[in-house]
Amino acid sequence: MTMFNLKKNFFATVAAVALAIGVSTAAQAASSPTDFQVTPTALGGVRGPFIAQAITGNSSELLRANATNTGHIGDGYIHYGLFNVGSGFEFLSDGYGLYVKFHIEDTAISATENFLTVLTFDFYADIGNNTTFTQAASAGGFGTDALVTNDTGDVKLGSGTLVAGIGELNGLGGATLNANTTFELTAAGKLYFTQPIPFFNLSFNGFNNQTGGAIINPDGTIAINAAGQTAFNNVPEPTSIALLGLGLLGLGASVRRRKA
Which of 124, 190, 200, 204 has the fewest CB atoms within 10 Å, counting from its CB? Predict the structure, then answer.
C-alpha cells in the first residue's frame, strides 16, 4: 500500500486552473488583495464586520486504499477556531463556530507523495456551537472515522471542488496537505462573507502536523490529524500551478510504468 503524504493546501484539472486565472479580480474593500470581511451579526453573532486574512483550525481524516491500490479515498473535517487578523488572531466566539466537511481522493506520484484527484467540501456555520467533532484514530487495529455529529441545525455557507493539490507523509509520520479549491457562497454565505463583492472564488488550504501525527493502522487505513489555515483569493498562486504541473508529470509517468 502506498503511504499517504499530506503537505500544504484543500485541487482537479488544468482547465480548472486556466478558468480560475481568467476570472477578473474583484473590487477590494480592504488594503490587501487577500483581505476579506466577515459579518457575524448576519447569523446572530454579537460582533459587527471585521477584516481577516485567513481562518485557522484543525483537520482530521481517515484514508483507505482505493479500489486499484494506487492511492487513497477518505472523508474528514476542518474545525476552525481563529481568524487571522493583521499580526494577531481573533477567536470565533459569536454563539456559533465554523467548519468544513470534505471528501478526498489521491493517486501516488512517488513512494512519499500523492497527487490529489478529487476534493469536494461544504462549509458550515455551527449555529449554537452544538456540533461535536471526533478525530480519526485507531481502535483494536482498525481505523476509526473522523466524525461530525449533531449538525442538523447548521447553516451551509459555501462549497468547492479541487483545482490542484498534493499530499505527503514523511518517514517520521509527519503529514502535510496543500490544496487549492474553488469557493462558491450560498445566499447565507454572502450575508456572512461580505467583502469583496463578488467574493473570492478560490480557497487555499494548508494543513500539516508534527512527527507521528499520522497513525498507520494494521488494517491499512491512515488517520491524519493536523493544523493549518484556509485563505481566499481569485487567482491561483504561481506555486499552485507548478504543483499541478509536477503532479500531472508524475501521474503520466506512473501510467506509463503500469502500461509497460
Answer: 190
